Amino acid sequence: MSEEHRETGTGWPQPAEPGRPSGPAGEPDPRPDAPDPDELSPLAPVEPAAPEQEGVPEPAEEPGASAAGAKPAPVSRRLTSAGAMIAVLLALLGFTLVVQLKTTSTDPTLAATREEDLVRISSDLDSRERRLRQDIEALEESQRQLRSGEQGRQAALEEATRRADELGILAGTLPAVGPGLSVRFEGPEKAVESERILDAVQELRGAGAEAMQIAGADGTAVRIIASTYFVDASGGGLVVDGRRLTGPYVISVIGDPATLRTALNIPGGVVASVEEAGGNVTPVDSEAVEVSQLHAPIKLEHARPVS
After folding, report:
1. Of 11, 49, 115, 243, which one has the fewest beta carbons inside 10 Å?
2. Tens digits of per-residue pLDDT, 208-264?
3. Which of 193, 244, 236 has its CA nearest to residue 218?
4. Is the pTM of this model over 0.85?
């Protein structure tokens, strides 16, 4: 054993390289932390450490270079653009949610409305929508008819004229002519009083009378419409819509003669009651009964058409 070995006290020379023990071949390393020689692969060569060169800096790698020669810069730029786009979309979504929540929370009407009321409001809106759609369809149909040409306009004008004539006859503002009856009432005052004449008018209306007028002995006539009233006049006679008439009275009525006659002659009807009181009722058929007396137009003060 050399002098150097005796100085260390181990009997082994000091390792020539840090971390790598040296000693006689085939003898284990006596150090407690030494690795098991069996675990070391004898085929793996140990590369010697490169000697350090003082004052010589290691070469710096070029920016963007990699061991495989790939270029990650474009990938990074694509990832950055996608991230920015996602961030913008998330910001817009958050802003929209915040605005919607703020609007809903600041609406005092909806906040204080119960669920039942909301359901009712929704149902009302649906019903209003259906009505509006029906109105739109009706207006569109009218528009198509008006755009159908001169023939359509002429047909619409004729229909409007016909309706106006019918309403004028019913209101008593237009004269009328047609088949019907001339009914003559004569007898004592009790037999032809206002109550019996009114019953006769009601029976004729129920039988389909379309136009009527009543005339007195002197030829004074009054158009009978829905608002006509009959009152017994003092001293005899009738007051019809403010005009006085004296008997005998003749009611001119336009309608189906057979139906009108049947209505007057029903058992216990007008003819029977007048005859019981000593009077007489004489209906006469005619193919051209004229109802020429006109009634002044009535000015409505309260009634309005339903829109």
Report:
1. 115
2. 999 999 999 988 999 999 889 999 998 889 999 999 999 899 999 999 999 999 999
3. 244
4. no
Residue among 117, 131, 127, 260 nearest 201 (CA): 260
Alpha carbons 264 and 203: distance in angstroms, whole number: 7
- Residue 32, by phi and psi: left (phi above 0), alpha (psi -120 to 50) or beta? alpha
- Angle at the Cα of 227 (from 221 to 232), degrees rounded to 5? 60
Half-sphere exposure of 265 (CA within 13 A, CB side): 9
- Facing residues of 249 across strands? 185
Count of alpha carbons within 13 angstroms of residue 237, beta-carbon side? 15
User: What is the largest distance, in Å, between two alpha-carbon atoms of the chain?
Assistant: 179
Report the C-alpha gap between 251 and 222 in whole angstroms. Answer: 10
How many residues are there in the chain? 307
